[in-house]
Amino acid sequence: MSEKVTELGEALRALGERGEHLIALQPAPEDLDEIREEMDAARRLLVVARASLARRCPQHPNAPADPTADGECLFCATNRRRGETANVTEAVPLQTVARAVAELGQDEAVRRYGAQTVTRAVLVCRNDLALLQESA
Question: Which domain of life is it from (predicted)?
């Protein structure tokens, strides 16, 4: 666990203790100002701790980091372990993907566009026989 996460936990515990004292005692305005300052400090620590746990993955912005994979986000590392290496594709029209399946075969289309995109294209375009037969 990172040092910032530990600091955040300590700050939140201190705020919790302050809350218990508020219930038992009548707070003075100075007490409330101190609580506000502690809450602001805890909020700043939260932002820093969150940023330290996130990776700037182009496919999954702000995704949590995988502790077992050096520098990878949790989702990409999981996909890599499963053997799913679908690349980030630009918004390719499904008709283009369906034509690639018809012309190049499913394996090549999956390699180029990813399994999900190919599946979606085949399902959407399955009724459009002219599209699939046009390239056959």
Answer: Bacteria
